[in-house]
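Give me the fold.
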Amino acid sequence: MISLAKFKDFDSEDFEKYRKESEDYYSYRHQKMNWLRHWEYPWVLKYGQFKETDTVMDAGGGYNYFPCILAKYVKEVVVFDKNPISLNHCVTFSPRFVCQNLVNLNITEEYDKIVSVSVIEHIEKWRDAIKNLCVALKQDGLLIMTISIDLDNKRPLFYSDIPEIINILKENSMELVGEQDIEIEDEFTKEQIVERNMSFPEIEYVNKGEERYTTIGIIARKNGKRQ
């Protein structure tokens, strides 16, 4: 599955339930949820096929609350981040933390699912990071990534790089799960949120020049077994 963030996703009851759950957690912690997360978190939770028996790697998730939110749906969340940070901000569970760079990942176990929320686009060697995440998955495991895309191409990873991402996945025994929808039409951006008068408390904090950011979601299964 490749899905571009679109406003139509917010019409889904499941999507709105997960979005509200994420927003409430941030509010409980007296924090503001990045505006892109209003799409990313519910999208991952809705389509990630998480099970109570899953051990999940959160790749690069040390600075947000998503591991805390995800933990209620799975057996264990293990957070990998290159910076030695504290995750004691999670109030409902104590996650395992592994201080490693995704570009030089040294895996001692494999995972049922791997999630990566708005991380890959910040990594210069993003190709190596994606390859390493594929290796870290169990057979039939799912890689669930969101990638924040600057539609003006100011980041290391461009919208035009999506075909290369798919090729990397295929070369590493991965196959997309579900249908593809990556056409930029009615895209979820700050510009259009403002135009539509949608109420996201965090939208006023978006930096100038980031109005044309959107995000894509990718789900791939190791060894190519489809739904």
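Residues 150 and 213 are 4 Å apart (CA to CA).
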